[in-house]
Amino acid sequence: MSFLTLGHRGVMGVEPENTLRSFVRAEASGMDAIELDLHLSKDGALAVMHDADVDRTTDGTGPIAAKTLAELRELDAGRGERIPVFEEVLEAVSSPLQAEIKDVAAARALADVMLERDLVGRVEVSSFHDEAVTEIARLVPGVRTVLIASRWGADVVDRAKAAGAATLALNIRRLTLEVVEQAHSESLKVIGWVVNTQDHLRLARALNLDGATTDFPEIRRTGRFTA
After folding, report:
1. Cα-Cα-Cα-Cα dihedral of 20, 36, 65, 145, to 10°?
2. Which residues form a coiled coil (predicted)?
3. For residue 90, what is the enclosing H or E element?
4. Are 2 and 223 in contact (CB under 8 A)?
5. Are 187 and 167 in contact (CB under 8 A)?
6. For FRET with 1, which of 44, 85, 208, 217 sits at 20 to 30 Å CA-CA?
7. Per-residue model confidence as pLDDT tens digits over 103-150
8. What CA–CA distances, in Å, run from 4 to 154, 172, 191, 194?
């Protein structure tokens, strides 16, 4: 079985997260795909940032949704990097992307870009929110979707199936073989996050996961040889 390694917000362990610099480094490191996060700016741009507020990762303060793209561009996102928009990432790297959306509104904005640029083959869409997964699948025929969970109940596989997701992305610290086997029995793939240590990588392999999200380039290299 092929084991995929996804760069988490690029390679955020060594570069400022969710920046073009981080995505370019992830691609150069040979990541199989690059994971990123999307929020809508006040004027509807698909800003690439994890948090709803800019406080943690930039020199600014306040919610992304309260700022225009021009205002977001003024912020330093680390090492002089600016907050990119999704379209810039598409141009900066050629790797497959996994785009995490935070709500239904972001799903609709992303759907417009995916349809306009014919990105079904390149962009997989993920979310913690079942309704966002369902919405992007409705709007973009054939899109590959991922349901993410940090804590989950016994119904997590049923939730993924109901939302039309092909993959579950689950917290490696709480994953059990029972959940993985149940998902695989329903033809769902399982990705573990965040796999940043050799112990977690060995666990991912022992659980027969389909892949892992990591902050560090080294996990991609050692993952090829870890049984």
Report:
1. 150
2. none
3. helix 86-92
4. no
5. no
6. 217
7. 999 999 999 999 999 999 999 999 999 999 999 999 999 999 999 999
8. 26, 15, 8, 13
